[in-house]
Amino acid sequence: KKEGKGAYRFFEPTMDAAARERHRLVLDLRAAIGTEQLELHYQPQFDVDSNRACGFEALLRWTHPEHGPIPPVQFIPLAEETGLILPLGEWVLREACREAASWALPLGIAVNLSIAQLGQADLCEVVRTVLEETGLKPERLELEVTESLFLKGSARSQEVLRDLKALGVRISMDDFGTGYSSLVTLQAFPFDKIKIDRSFVSQIGVTSKGGAIVRAIISLGESLDIPVIAEGIETEEQLSFLRQHRCAAIQGYLRGKPRPIAEYRRLIAPIENLRVA
Ligand code: C2E
Ligand code: MG
Ligand code: MG
Ligand code: MG
C-alpha cells in the first residue's frame, strides 16, 4: 500500500507535465497560424507513361521557435482534437490554391482534409470562396480524405463530399488499404482517385504478397475506372514494377521529397517540365 501510494505520487507530476506540454503546444500552434512558422511543402506527382510532373501534394510543416520542426503526425492530431484544424485547414487550403493558381502549367494540387473539416457546416462555402478568391479552376483541386471519415458521421460526410464534387473539385481516397473497410468505402462513394498506401509499395520486391496486393489495387482501379497513384516510391525497382503493371502515377522520395515550391520551379514552368521528360 505504501509503495502504491509512493508510485502514485511519483507519476502524478509527470502526467501533469505531459498534459501541460500538450496544452502549451496547442497554444503555440494557435499562435503560429498566419506566421512564418507554418509553411507548405510540395511533393511532386509524376505521370508514369510520360514521366512528367502532373501535380503536387501540399504538406503542412511547422517549425516551432524552440523545439524546431514538429512532424504533422504529432501536431495534426492535436489540431483535430482541439478544433484548431478548422482555421489551420482553411489556411492550408487558401495557401495551396493561391500558390497553384500562380503556376504557368495547370497541374493538379492535392490538399489533405481531416475528418473534423468534413463536419464543418460551411466547408463547401469555404472551398467555393477560396476557389473564387484565388481564381483556381475547381478541377485542379483534389481533396484527399481517408476512410476513417466514413466510419464516423458517415452519411453527413458523404453529403459534404458530394457537394464538393458538385463544385467541380475532385476527391481522392488517401492511404488506400490501410483501414478496416477500404472496399466498403470505395463502394459508398464515387472517388476520383485512389492512392495506394506507402506500406504496400514498400513491400514490392520484398515479399511476394507486397507486389500482389499492389497489382490487385491497380486492377481494382482499372475495373472501376478510377485512376491509381502509388505513394512512397523510393526505389527504381518499385517504379519499374508499377510501370509494368500500368499504375497511372507515382509520388515518392525517388522522384522528389516534399520541399518548398521554390525548389520545384522547373517542374511548373512549361518548357522545363517538357525537358524533364
Ligand atoms: P499523407 O497525406 O498520406 O502524406 C504522405 C506522407 O508520406 C507525407 O508525410 C510525405 O512526406 C510522406 N512521403 C512521401 N513520399 C515518401 C517516401 O518515398 N518515403 C517516405 N518514407 N515517406 C514519404 P508527412 O508530410 O509527414 O505527412 C504525414 C501525414 O500528415 C499526411 O499523410 C497527412 O495525413 C497529414 N498531413 C500533412 N499535412 C496535412 C494538412 O495540411 N492537413 C491535414 N489534415 N493533414 C495533413
Ligand atoms: Mg495525402
Ligand atoms: Mg497517404
Ligand atoms: Mg496519411
Automatic annotation (TrEMBL):
Keywords: Cell membrane, Membrane, Transmembrane, Transmembrane helix. Residues 22-272 form the EAL domain. The keyword Ligase does not apply. Its main location: membrane. It is found in: Cell membrane. This is Diguanylate cyclase (GGDEF)-like protein. It comes from Methylobacterium persicinum. The chain holds residues 613 to 889 of 889 of the full protein.
